[in-house]
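Predict both folds.
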Amino acid sequence: MGFLDEAKQKAGEFLKSDKAEQQTDQVLDKAADLAKNKLGEDKADQVDKVRNAIDDKIGGQSQADTPDEQ
């Protein structure tokens, strides 16, 4: 296995990790909040749908699927 193959494999493993999920959730939450502020609360449901669709594609779990941390 070459260096690039190994790097690609490690990147893929990281993207499936809990740490990556948390980081992508934070970025998506900030982007969704910004969009809601610019578009108004009447578009909040649409923003949340887009946020969750993106999270499903890149993170694996949507925010609705994750248990609340206390």
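Second protein follows, with its predicted structure tokens after the sequence.
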Amino acid sequence: MTANPILLQKKYSRVIECFAKQQGLSLDVALDFFYHSQVYQLIRDGVSDMHCMSDAYLAEELKQEYEEKVPEKAVVKEKIK
């Protein structure tokens, strides 16, 4: 299924904002991670109607991917205090 591109952009922004808040990251860091994530690729490609999932669910999926890719003790620039 193909989603409306404008609605997808709005969805992306909500998911990125939710993910940034969950992880305590700046929006720039969260945005960069999102656009290089598997979650983004799945949503973009319309796999399993990922775009129909809730923002919180997708942010949680991003969190899991982030924890797999970024070591726990890694220093992340622009982390919000």
